[in-house]
């Protein structure tokens, strides 16, 4: 008989947050299912629990049957609203902290250490000069130019190292999981991966603090991705206040999805972009309008909270407000824009590859043991080089805001960008900054501090775009009457080309190449810049960039990290098989651990449950006919209810599951039909692989049973599908944290 | 044995477009499956055909194995691009035609009959007066005031009746299916409903022409929905040029989805909104990034084409450009906005109910036989009443554009809206117009002309919103120092409240109440108005309106029409059962027409195929064990290949499908295992109803088989699920065009 052990050498840590809470369980469905970190939830089973719970609520007698479901719904929306408000306030608070820490690298407020440069100078009229905010040279009254330069550079570099180092120490000592962006993990969790350790209050605290420190240190990283992680931690924490959302893994994930949308909403000041990010990138709202709706509400409320706190004092959600010379654009501009799209696709793919290579090198070299030292070195190098280049010295968000601005004689000329005599120099510096940032970002995204990839990518793209815009503008100024510029006014002093908008286009292209997002990206860029009138060029450019990028490698940066970590996440790709059928990925019956209806004894079953940590077991009868699927939890619960006889009797009793059990006398059998799952999907062996993948993608399945004329022939699990879909990626599992497969038959 | 006929009294029309094309078919999968209009496609089966086709293309020897798939892909994108360009140009041409016809009701161009008022007056400077465009009174040199008024009113009313009447005659004589919006049918078609007659070139032509006439007639209808239908007809026509897209029903639907997105893109000048409309409302891109991507490209290209043709001479996509007094809004404004949201939800639900009641009355009264007369009466009433009310006289699109404008002393004051002494009168007139338009729209949406519901709904909402805005503004002007207005400047001459933006809010609320869209609606409104800085109020208002509307009735207007027509369309709702299991909707074995493996003879099988028009039959063996699912097409094809013996022998031969066939001697059996479908999904009887509905929603299934320990127990078809989900709607099937169920077991 095919009773084979696949991996019985795995030892499990108890999940510290849930497993110890309850002991003996009274009925099949009335206990909380426990999943170990690293396993995959059984979506259909959890839905079943939720259904039972709702049914119990609704079937209460009298008023309670109406009141309880209403209260339940009210609690849910209260949780959504609280989450939105919490994330909005946390995001605003982070912005304030980052601004203060970042400003501290350049100077301080004379009348109070804890004011940032904006807060310090409030109440100053437009023409006045703010004397309250002093650079360190002024404040410490160093008068020699050399001394001042040295002082400024030293403080700049030293504080950068101090901030980054503290962030790394915090992360390494208190919450090692709080490093990196968190998006790959959130994607995996929302897809059913169990990773409760990733959402603890400690991680929330350390990630938020560490994020503020690492952003302020001037490392080439952004706060957007980690903010989504922070939002999810917050929702997880809040949902503990409400029983029910915490107990049901599917409900928990629905709340987390709404929180993630709210996180994006706050990160970019983009409520609509948040919802669409949830829809497209997190792939969680598919067909669940209820969940999308929650994301919508959470996003809107988070944005209201952010606007109410008003961290930048502008009362605006649009972070990088763009004002264009004209609302129209000319057909010839499509040439540089499509060129930018191609550049974005190529450079994005290169950035992903470089980042993957560095991550592999880090894991396999001496760096692996010295994460804090690595952070300190990277921040020292970043700060030293950045200080020398005018565009790299300021914080990336400030750089992007300035690059997106059009030249306007009535406004200050940031970094000399609008100086027409320095165009060549500017173009060179912009390209240099872009290349530098590509290398620094590829290294930084993965070191032991919280780090997002969005903002640096926008920065790289904005530099490239502005450079291309300047080139186009110079060409137009040099040859204003060339046929290609015919649609522009012939007088070159009239503006025709907006280099600021080229920067927006460049940012879109680069983001498209790195993240491979499409619609949510376009919406986020609108809401970020207010550039609604230029929707078409942005769409065309994102399209080009994604096409070029996909030709150079299918995976976006998050998909690459998910594959390297080997999380059980099924990418929402359109999988097309080459004629293979389901049996291709199937684990055949001979390799499965099965329970035999009416043959396996109670003693053997107990032995099974000890020996194998699998989530569930197929039950078949003597002729291999498929009887059902018994989960470990249901078996445990059913066995727990049994009156225990002495071991000898017990071991002679047969376990029965099907209606055929009456062939066996009552005293020789144990009836366990309740241990069978209701929601089990069967397919024929000849079912095309495409259908199998499709069902896993759309129904969040954990396993599909293959039968032929009633006989069990094999089993496909989510892990098999994940392996199939990541097989093209050469470094799958290179950074795996947990042993895969450990609870999947 | 349970051989029962369910409906053998139905006679089928042959599908005139496809059925006559081919006769005998050589192999199982190499023929085009034919579906009758009114049936539902078998999504998995079609996917299988597509897979086989791709496999054949890729497995060609040598260069052809690379070249053919590349060509295939190039053809596909060429089709997408052509569709986009075609829809963009068609939309622009329609705009021009509508503008000319509409202007004709007021006057004509002196130097050319075929110029509209804009084209007639091109080249006129901003200060100059256009003398070339003359009202009919001027042109015909009628000088008495009474005579002029009478002339203008008569021409207005007579031309309205003439336009609407011609549209109705065109529709009734040439293409009766071209009336109404078309969105419900497109939704059903995209969901798998077969309705090829709905997409013919005739319909394309008549719908486009009729649309121009009916919009120009001033009836309370819009062009947006019908334009989506026109776009789909165009894609269908173009796809005939490309073999393969036409033959495969799933491929065809993917192209139609992209075309529908492009249609919305052109209708609203909203490329991003088009994609999101496809995503949310048409529910077709779910998890199919490839299809979403096509919609993205088609939308973008259609918008480029529209902008290139530039029908309005503004070179802008934003149709109703909004400019606000300030970018910020005050917290107290949430009160009137949420009030507007509630009004929108209530009025939207009322409009839906009224429309449904009128549709039922039309069907069951004498009106049913006199569609053209009804159109003429409605247009006469509409024109007569509208001429009397200043806000109703202009075309709805013009009214909306003006209502969205802020008052600005430097610009003309449309309709006296900005006259501060006429505020009370304006508020009264605006409410009156809104009520009038609700009634007229409820009647017009369903008469025998092409008619969309979007624009009239926007018009109603804009009137309401502007009225509420004027009320708020009056309150502020009367009590500028009240505590609620504290956040406004205390000087009432400074603007604090923007009634124009209230009109935008009102339009959002009303649209939310009528269509129950959420995200795509918000995006369309952005792109329509450019009001990006006010994303939050619009989101909050759409939320409120949808909540209130859903409380008054779950269905949006399209869902209501789909239910009345009884199209097999599964709404993408979050279905939650109350503890029911799948058997609740299941048709049990005893009611099914089955083939018995090794028992049914060839003669009986032939008899079966003649007697029942079902799409497929379950095959079971002697013990009711489920062997497989044989489609009618596959059976036909396999029987066609047989060498025919004499009838007597034939009738004694048993049909065999399973590997068990070897029990029967070769000369006594016919082997038909190839007739079984590969993609058949089995569930246990205890599977929760929620899972069953979910699988139909997400996998586009046609049927699910229920088995218990290998034995067939029943069958659930798409039609059963549709009936389940529309059971709450009291008028399901009231307007049904085709007999339902006619090909579903």
Topology:
Two copies of one chain form a homodimer.
Chain A: H1 43-58, H2 64-104, E1 107-109, H3 117-120, E2 133-135, H4 136-139, H5 145-174, H6 183-190, H7 201-216, H8 224-239, H9 249-268, H10 271-280, H11 289-309, H12 334-364, H13 371-388, H14 390-393, H15 396-404, H16 423-444, H17 454-478, H18 499-515, H19 519-529, H20 535-551, H21 557-565, E3 587-588, E4 595-596, H22 602-611, E5 616-620, E6 626-631, H23 632-641, H24 647-652, E7 654-656, E8 669-671, E9 681-684, H25 689-699, E10 703-708, E11 711-717, H26 718-725
Parallel strand pairs in A: 4-5, 7-8, 9-10
Antiparallel strand pairs in A: 1-2, 3-11, 5-6, 10-11
Count of domains of chain A: 3
Text of the CATH class of the largest domain in chain A: Mainly Alpha
Please name the CATH topology of the largest domain in chain A. Clc chloride channel
The CATH homologous superfamily of the largest domain in chain A is named Clc chloride channel
As laid out across the biggest beta sheet of chain A, the strand order is 3-11-10-9
Content of β-strand of chain A: 5-15%
State the helical fraction of chain A: 40-55%
What does the main sheet of chain A amount to?
Answer: 4 strands, mixed
As a whole number of angstroms, the C-alpha radius of gyration of chain A is 29 Å
Note poorly predicted spans of chain A: 1-33
Number of strands of chain A: 11
Biggest interface found: A-B, 84 and 85 residues
Please tally the helical runs of chain A, counting DSSP H or I stretches of 4 or more residues: 26
Oligomer: homodimer
Mean pLDDT of chain A: 81
The CATH architecture name of the largest domain in chain A reads Orthogonal Bundle
Distance between the termini of chain A: 17 Å
- Give the overall silhouette of chain A: elongated
């Amino acid at each position: 008989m095919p009773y084979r052990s696949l991996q019985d050498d795995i030892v499990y840590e108890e999940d510290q947050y849930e497993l110890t809470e309850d002991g003996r369980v009274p009925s099949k469905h009335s206990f909380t299912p426990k999943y170990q970190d690293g396993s995959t939830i059984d979506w259909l089973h959890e839905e079943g629990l939720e259904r039972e719970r709702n049914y119990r609520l609704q079937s209460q007698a009298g008023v309670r049957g109406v009141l309880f479901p209403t209260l339940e719904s009210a609690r849910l929306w209260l949780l959504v609203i609280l989450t939105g408000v919490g994330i909005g306030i946390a995001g605003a608070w982070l912005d304030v902290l980052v601004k203060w820490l970042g400003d501290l690298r350049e100077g301080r407020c004379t009348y109070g250490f804890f004011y940032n440069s904006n807060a310090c100078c409030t109440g100053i009229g437009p023409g006045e000069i703010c004397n309250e905010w002093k650079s360190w040279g002024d404040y410490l009254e160093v008068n020699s130019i050399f001394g001042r330069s040295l002082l400024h550079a030293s403080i700049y570099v030293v504080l950068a190292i101090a901030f980054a180092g503290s962030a790394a120490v915090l992360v390494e000592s208190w919450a090692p999981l709080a490093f990196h962006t968190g998006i790959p993990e959130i994607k995996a969790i929302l897809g059913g991966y169990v990773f409760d350790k990733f959402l603890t209050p400690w991680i929330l605290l350390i990630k938020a603090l560490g994020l503020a420190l690492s952003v302020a240190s001037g490392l080439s990283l952004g706060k957007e991705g980690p903010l989504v992680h922070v939002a999810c931690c917050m929702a997880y924490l809040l949902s503990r206040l409400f029983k029910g959302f915490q107990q049901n893994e599917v409900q928990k994930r629905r709340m987390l999805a709404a929180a993630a949308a709210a996180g994006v909403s706050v990160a970019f000041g983009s409520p609509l972009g948040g919802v669409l990010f949830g829809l497209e990138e997190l792939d969680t709202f598919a067909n669940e309008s209820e969940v999308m709706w929650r994301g919508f509400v959470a996003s809107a409320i988070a944005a209201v909270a952010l606007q109410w706190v008003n961290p930048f004092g502008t009362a605006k959600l649009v972070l990088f407000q763009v004002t264009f010379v004209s609302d129209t654009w000319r057909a010839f501009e499509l040439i540089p824009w499509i060129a930018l799209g191609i550049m974005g696709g190529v450079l994005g793919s290169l950035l992903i590859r470089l980042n993957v290579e560095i991550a592999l090198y880090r894991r396999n070299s001496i760096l692996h043991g010295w994460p804090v030292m690595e952070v300190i070195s990277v921040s020292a190098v970043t700060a030293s080089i950045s200080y020398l280049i005018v565009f790299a010295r300021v914080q990336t968000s400030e750089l992007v805001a300035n690059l997106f601005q059009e030249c306007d004689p009535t406004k200050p000329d940031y970094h000399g960008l609008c100086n027409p005599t320095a165009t060549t120099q500017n173009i060179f510096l912009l390209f240099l900054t872009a290349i530098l940032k590509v290398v620094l970002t590829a290294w930084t995204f993965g070191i032991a501090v919280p780090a997002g990839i969005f903002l640096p990518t926008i920065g790289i793209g904005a530099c490239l775009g502005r450079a291309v815009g300047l080139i186009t503008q110079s060409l137009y100024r040099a040859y204003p009457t060339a046929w290609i510029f015919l649609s522009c006014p012939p007088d070159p002093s009239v503006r025709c080309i907006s280099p600021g908008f080229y920067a927006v286009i460049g940012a879109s292209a680069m983001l498209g190449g790195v993240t491979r997002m499409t619609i949510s990206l376009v919406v986020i860029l609108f809401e970020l810049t207010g550039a609604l009138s230029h929707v078409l060029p942005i769409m065309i450019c994102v399209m080009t960039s994604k096409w070029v990028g996909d030709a150079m490698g299918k995976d976006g940066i998050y998909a690459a990290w998910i594959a390297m970590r080997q999380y059980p996440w099924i990418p929402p790709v359109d999988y097309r098989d080459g004629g293979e059928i389901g049996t291709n990925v199937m684990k055949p019956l001979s390799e499965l651990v099965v329970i035999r209806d009416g043959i396996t004894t109670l003693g053997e079953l107990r032995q099974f449950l000890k020996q194998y940590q699998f989530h569930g077991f197929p039950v078949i009868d003597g002729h291999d006919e498929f009887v059902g699927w018994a989960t470990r939890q249901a078996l445990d619960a059913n066995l727990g209810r049994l009156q225990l006889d002495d071991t000898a009797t017990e071991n002679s009793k047969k376990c029965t599951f099907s209606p055929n059990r009456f062939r066996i006398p009552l005293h020789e059998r144990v009836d366990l039909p309740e241990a069978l799952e209701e929601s089990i999907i069967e397919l024929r062996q000849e079912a095309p692989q495409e259908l199998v993948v499709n069902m896993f993608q759309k129904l969040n399945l954990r396993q599909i049973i293959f039968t032929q004329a009633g006989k069990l022939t094999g089993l496909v699990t989510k892990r098999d599908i994940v392996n199939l879909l990541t097989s093209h990626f050469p470094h799958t599992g290179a950074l795996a944290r947990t042993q895969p497969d450990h609870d999947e038959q």
